[in-house]
Write a structure and sequence with these properties.
- The protein is mainly alpha-helical and 259 residues long.
- 76% of the residues lie in helices and 0% in strands.
- It is built from ten helices and no strands.
- The chain is rod-shaped and about 95 Å long.
- The N terminus and C terminus are likely disordered.
Length: 259
């Protein structure tokens, strides 16, 4: 950034220095926010991109009596919709009651929603804290300016310029950080709401399939036609859109206890 006619130029390091000590926590806030935004954007993209496809494939296989193939497709597909289908279809194959299937699906949905919302609290905190840090820098700059006036015993523009500069730079930096973080937060909340609707749609399709298979006896026929196929194929932990460190969905979603 250059000031025309003066030959004075400012780069980011100069602004960081001129803004004083309050620029360092603001810099940390911006770095944390950037990391969370990149991670959440990828996670939500990966969770959404194959939801409709896996729902159609699993429903077609399950209604065709290929329960084990439908389970394998759900196990191999990352995303919350696939996790719900996987949890419910295993219980359909094991001939569990509709109440048990619904309970397992609800538990899996709560776990997956927790994964999707991870990091949103960080963005909300930064969006609120960054402007406050900027205002603290403003107060600190004004205190510095009036302190210089009191020490000199007279009002001189050169004496207060440094403090006013600190006040303006920190305020602007706090707002520059908060505005895009707040926009990203609201965007992610909207995307998560869409994924919740897709999870509810998957739950509805699953419960309808379970009822139809139970009514027509298709579940028993599917089990007899799938002889020789292992009855349990735990969903790998790496299938989660969260990546490394995410608990095994097969183990988590099969819990008989509500969180």
């Amino acid at each position: 950034m250059e000031e025309s006619g003066t030959g004075v130029s400012y780069d980011l390091l100069t602004l960081l220095y001129d803004g004083g000590a309050w620029m360092y926590p603001l810099l940390l806030c911006s770095l944390f926010a950037l990391g969370v935004i990149i991670a959440k954007a990828y996670i939500l993209w990966a969770a959404h991109r194959r939801s409709s496809e896996v729902l159609e494939r699993v429903e077609a296989l399950a209604r065709g009596g290929k329960i084990d193939q439908a389970i394998q497709v759900a196990a191999d597909t990352p995303g919350p919709v696939a996790a719900i289908l996987y949890s419910g279809l295993r219980r359909v194959r094991d001939r569990q009651s509709g109440a048990d299937i619904e309970k397992a699906v609800q538990t899996t949905g709560i776990i997956e929603l927790g994964f999707l919302e991870r990091g949103l609290a960080v963005l909300a905190t930064i969006a609120n804290v960054a402007p406050l840090l900027g205002f603290l820098g403003t107060v600190a700059g004004m205190i510095s300016a009036f302190g210089a006036i009191a020490e000199a015993g007279q009002v001189d523009a050169a004496l207060v310029a440094s403090g006013i500069k600190i006040a303006l730079i920190t305020t602007a930096t706090g707002l520059i950080i908060a505005v895009p973080v707040n926009v990203a937060y609201n965007f992610f909340v909207t995307r998560i709401d869409i994924l919740i609707m897709e999870m509810e749609e998957g739950t509805s399709h699953l419960l309808n399939m379970a009822w139809d298979l139970e009514r027509t006896g298709g579940g028993a026929a599917a089990l007899s036609s799938a002889a020789g196929v292992p009855r349990h194929s735990p969903r790998p932990a790496t299938d989660s859109v969260e990546g490394m460190g995410t608990p095994d969905r097969g183990a988590a979603s099969d819990s008989d206890h509500q969180p």
